[in-house]
Specification:
By secondary structure, this protein is α/β, with parallel strands linked by helices. The chain has one domain: Aldolase class I (TIM Barrel, Alpha-Beta Barrel). Helices cover 49% and strands 16% of the residues. Helix 7 links the parallel strand 5 and strand 6. Helix 10 packs antiparallel against helix 12. The relative contact order is 0.18. The model has no long low-confidence stretch (mean pLDDT 97). Bound molecules: 1,3-dihydroxyacetonephosphate. The site of 1,3-dihydroxyacetonephosphate has 14 residues, from strand 3, strand 8 and helix 10.
């Protein structure tokens, strides 16, 4: 069933686990994630990068995600990841998202707040939850990591915007890490105690299991996985025999590989069996 980001993260807060948010790119990655969620009776977030919403990909992919969410017996949120402009947010709303991220984290605090407030108002009116970001989560290729999110910033931002979820910078980055990241677990705990919103960890691919578990115990409720969804799919595509030419059959192993990857993260995040 399709649910909002707030509804799915409320379940996680109540149960003390985190909901995995998988970035999807095509029908097969969506099918792999949904099959995993159904088999493990787990709530999941299916999200797509905003760049897909700026091309025909989003136009074709959104109905697939919605169909999967509506058919599923477990709660599923359809989320726009890293919406950067109002234009992308409006497309997300039109395409049926039940969660929207507005990422204005590279702007100064006051401009980030202003932009997020505008989007939050737009989305609240039509019952769509909003994720904001404070402290910019960059990529593994950046020269250095930005300043970690402070408790004071998180409080100021959430009180001003009333976002349903907040992405914070506590040691992760997007992409394949050159060396395993070390998270600031105490900072997560302090922010979780100080704000009344659900905390999000971006850059989940390659974060060691122990760090993930500690982050959840400290209060993280949504963890994003993008890079490793791609590798789980593509590694299998490259292994699949060229003699198979029926595309649906060719794609079976790669779809299954996404399913297995999703199951491993559902279990790691404690979402396994959380929706009977
Ligand atoms: P990774 O690609 O590093 O898993 O990050 C995904 C992400 O945070 C999407 O917003």
């Amino acid at each position: 069933m399709l649910v909002t980001l707030k509804e799915i993260l409320d379940l996680a807060e109540k149960g003390g686990f985190a909901v995995p948010a998988f970035n999807t790119y095509n029908m097969e990655t969506v099918m792999g994630v949904i099959a995993a969620a159904e088999e493990r009776k787990a709530p999941v977030i299916i999200q797509s990068y905003s760049r897909l919403f700026n091309s025909d990909n989003g136009y074709y992919l959104s109905p697939i995600i919605l169909a999967a969410a509506k058919k599923a017996t477990v709660p599923v949120c359809f989320h726009l990841d890293h919406g950067a402009t109002e234009f992308e947010v409006i497309r997300g709303i039109r395409y049926g998202c039940s969660g929207i991220m507005i990422d204005a984290s590279s702007l100064p605090m006051n401009e980030n707040i202003e932009m997020t407030q505008k989007v939050a108002k737009m989305c609240r009116d039509v019952n769509i939850s909003v994720e904001g970001e404070i402290g910019h989560v960059g990529t593994v290729n950046d020269d250095s990591m930005g300043e970690f999110t402070t408790v004071a910033e998180a409080k100021e931002f959430t009180e001003a915007t009333r976002v349903d979820a907040l992405a914070i910078l506590v040691g992760t980055a997007h992409g394949r890490y050159k060396k395993p990241p070390k998270l600031d677990i105490q900072r997560i705990k302090d922010i979780h105690n100080a704000v009344d919103t659900h905390l999000v960890l971006h850059g989940g691919s390659g974060v060691p299991d122990e760090e993930i578990k500690a982050a959840i115990s400290a209060g993280i409720r949504k963890i994003n996985f993008g890079t490793d969804v791609c590798y789980s799919f593509l590694d299998k595509v490259f292994e699949t025999s060229r003699s198979i030419f029926a595309i649906d059959i060719f794609m079976k192993d790669a779809t299954n590989s996404v399913k297995e990857f999703a199951i491993s993260k559902i279990k790691l995040l404690g979402a396994d069996g959380k929706y009977e």
